[in-house]
Amino acid sequence: AVKAAIAAKLEALSIFTRFAVGLSVAVLIIGAIIVGVSMMSSIHERIREIGILRAVGFRRAHLMRMFLIEILAVSLTSGCLGFIMGTAVAQFISSRIAASSSIAAWDPLLALVAIGLATVMGTVGGFYPAIRASQLDPVEALRAL
């Protein structure tokens, strides 16, 4: 009976783990799509700037590098702030729910993974808009003036 109860609990834990992983992957994909849409909007608003930069001699690689560095900086900052705020909220909630002094620990490995994932997903989401910005024709972009 004990073996069956343990097996049932392990099976339930396995199901919850798979569900959590699937949900996390879905959230990461949605996050990358949101970053891509935001970057496309930013690029659309900056068409004149891109046209001027291309007209004064910026090459496609320069523009691509410029947008990728921008999205990398935003993703890195967002990852750091997200980890700090998430851990602070977890500490606040865990102390209220447990009604004790137990607090969520600051885990450097978790911080590295969270910030790394935010940076990678932001860069992946911003890669296509950066390519589109670098391929803009300067004449077409300057027509928007």
Write the layout of secondary structure elements.
Blueprint: H1 2-45, H2 47-55, H3 60-97, H4 108-134, H5 138-143
Helix pairs in contact: 1-4, 3-4
Low-pLDDT regions: none
Q: How many strands?
A: 0
Query: What's the average pLDDT?
Result: 87
Distance between the termini: 77 Å
Number of DSSP helices? Answer: 5
Main sheet record: none
> Structural class, please?
mainly alpha
The percentage of residues in β strands lies in: under 5%
Order of helices and strands: HHHHH
Helix content: over 70%
Rg, alpha carbons: 22 Å
Shape: elongated
Walkthrough of the structure:
The protein is mainly alpha-helical. It has five helices and no strands. The chain is elongated and about 75 Å long. It starts with a helix and ends with a helix.
What's a concise summary of this model?
The chain is mainly alpha-helical and 145 residues long. It contains five helices and no strands.
Features:
single chain, about 140 residues, mainly alpha
